[in-house]
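Structure, all three chains, one model.
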Amino acid sequence: MTDRISRRVFLRRAAASGSILTVPGLLAACGGGGGGGGGGGGTTEAHKLAKTLHFSNWTLYIDVKNHGHPSLDQFQKKYGVHVDYREDINDNASFFSKIEPDLARGQSTGRDIIVMTDNSRYPALLVKKGWVEKLDKSAIPNIKNLVPQQRNPSWDPGREHSLPWQSGFTGIGWNEKLTNPVTSMGDLLGNKKLKGKVGLLTEFSDTLALVMAYNGDDPSKITDKTFNKAISVIQRSVNAGQVRQFYGNDYASALSNGDLVATMAWSGDIVQLQADNSHLKWQLPNDGGDIWTDNMLIPKGGDVYTASVYMNFVYDPKIAAEIEDYVNYVCPVLGAKEALVKQDPAIAKNPLIFPTKQELDNAHTIDPTALNNEKYQTTWQNLISA
Amino acid sequence: MSTAEVTLTRRRSGASSPARVWAFVRRHVLTVYSLLFFLYLMLPIAVVIAFSFNHPRGRFNYTWKGFTWDNWLHWNAVPGIQSAITLSLEIALLASIVATGLGTLIALALVRYGFRGRGTTNLIIFLPLSTPEIVLGASLATLFLHSTTYGLRIPFGFWTILIAHIMFCISFAVVTVKARLIGFDRHLEEAAMDLGANEWTTFRKVTLPLIAPAILAALLLCFAISVDDFVVTYFNAGNRVTFPIFVWGAARVATPPQINVIGTAIFAVAVTCMLGNVFIQNRRAKAA
Amino acid sequence: MGFGFLHRHRNTTPYLLLAPGLLFLGVFFLVPLGYLAYQALQSGNIDFGYQFTWAWSNFSDAVRGYGGQFERSFAYAGIATALALLVSYPVAYWIAFRGGRWKNLLLLCIVAPFFVTYLIRTLAWETILADHGLVVRTLTDIHILSPGGRLLATGTAVVAGITYNFLPFMALPLYVSLEQIDPTLIEAAEDLYASKWRAFFRVTFPLSLPGVVGGTLLTFIPAAGDFINAQLLGSPTNHMIGNVINSKYNELIDYPAAAAMSFILMAIIVALVLMYARAVGSEKLTG
């Protein structure tokens, strides 16, 4: 991680453009971080910022206040770049289908930043096929704020092409009014008292990771043997009528109204559900849970420099805190918790948003090669779509 | 004919009391059934309307937490929701009008004329209905992408969404209007011609008013399909967001009550328009 | 029949009427369909690309691997269509004959549920039909459901969902052809001493057949390819061919398989429609 602008270079550039005379500029100069000069249309090579940054993201996944997005406005003010923010990502698979034709034909997708989840096969696929640009690390000194556990994912070693936007845990949620705590997958899949009221996720990676951890196998290194073992455990449970349904994100309503007593669940959903229903509890399974990350990527043809400057901007703990205050998933930026403690202690102290090191260590990430294994995927689809 | 109330009466004299009660029940069983039908139809809508007044503390709208007017007062508080519904309504309006127009022409041709290629035409009408939405949307998107090879750059956005919607609505319009044209009494048209009207006048003053209910039904059906479509739209929308795309996207992290508000509002506005129509017709009938 | 004046223009008028619509469909449906056919004969995967290899095996694989889902789709669609017909016919009749000034308003009410996105109205149904909700409790009390039984996450829920969501597609064509029937015809039948039911079956119903045909086609055909009801309301054993096609396309990025399956689905539907048209009768009823 030595691609940082040296302070001397930064000060020279900043002095030339006059930005050191602003407070952020001064702070940045003192802190050693921050981005480069002012606006103006540009190309990726010349280290000039584009006039517009085209950012495609998931719906309601950025800070919101008074019909606007304060962090984006701050970015515009600081760098003079207008962010064309589009919430047109609904789901990894179908979004990939939308951009695949452009990428396959070497055409630009019209987007500078996209956000895709690493528990789907697509980030690994995009990197493998060379359909994403390398980050301009020289523009992202704040990358030092990335939590250590996220610095070296197996599908993007050294974070050359991606940076986490938000993460989420997959664990087990249960309704304490209807059952004793369900803290292990064995309980979820085998406890007859929960028969017909258990939910599993359609997400290949989430469900398999938790079951494999329960089996004692390592989800980040999947072999045929461990895969088949996990599948047979799940199939047995399905055949016994234990599993009510395989859910996307619609388990939330079933859990709320009691149709599900215990289910695999995502941490961010639970944060929201608990606000209205304090009987819903959640934890990572004892044998190990799963963490997935929504990653910022630059599709081929996107403006690398501007996108990198933006990524650096959101890795500023203060900005990350603003965003996290609204989004409430798991924050990947060190320092954001401290920045948030004064203005919103409830969020800052919530372990579902700022987890402990222990929790982060207890959460596995799925083996990305397994995600792209056709045989595994077909077996899985046949299982959930009998 | 179409506005007159029709009551079917039994022609028997001297009916006894139980028979009269039975007759009363039988006369009204249809009404009762129909009211039950509308109750069933509207049941989820009632829940949706109720929950539009919910005041959840979290971002999901699954548990009743208390009454509030907030969602209605701040119906566009969720960023992106207003532009999404505006886009959906614009598209739905235009698509239903164009699709119904094109569909009516096709229906007229199919029912009234003998021509070669009827079977093929019918096939072309039924195929879009039978094509799974995902491949329908994806293959149309491929067409728009390939257009660049022929020199046209069709950017994804409003026009591609509109084209897609018209495309899958035409079939619905054709079938609906056809159901009316088959069995249409031609003698009325002949009578008009006999009285000296030319073809165009006959069409305008006799045919069109008589198939108007079918055209209205086709418009309503196409509008409903268009405003609710997700899969085909998603592939052809580029980075534009329609209301269903917004809802499905938001559902991952939230189900804001404002969605309920908007759905209810569209329904309410449409009902008001229809009621207005009824009153105008009333006035006209009284004045006549 | 009164073709009369239309004979003069018999040659060009139909083609003029057809041209705009068919041209539109030709460009924006048939051409993409051609591309889909091309894809159906490709093989390969996303990693190494797809090549056109006359891969007829895509079709046989589809039938062999997913015959169950195909059957289930037609079964569900068929039941849902029959239910929709039975449920909607009386209402369409009522609106057509008794609706009076309120006809248009009532028609609007039938399509009103579509103004609230599918997801939201299905969530509302999930609230209504929840295991601990009023409906399920009542049904258990009167012994229609076994104790501990549920309505959601079953095949019943999927069929009910399909029926509900396709009701307007059945009701509107029915209404459209019923509304046209001259009530004096029915009165005439009764004058000739026909009972109400006889009058209905001999006069009204036959005259409404074009609507019945239209409605069944508009319901059955799209319902067979539906996937969303099975996804949200069904358990894994209730999935339809639409779900498989979706997963082939999205999750497995197996475009050739998805395309081949789509064509098989379309072919079966067209065959069924042809048989249906023949069974129902002449062109006079199907146009």
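Residues 17-51 of chain B form the longest helix (35 residues).
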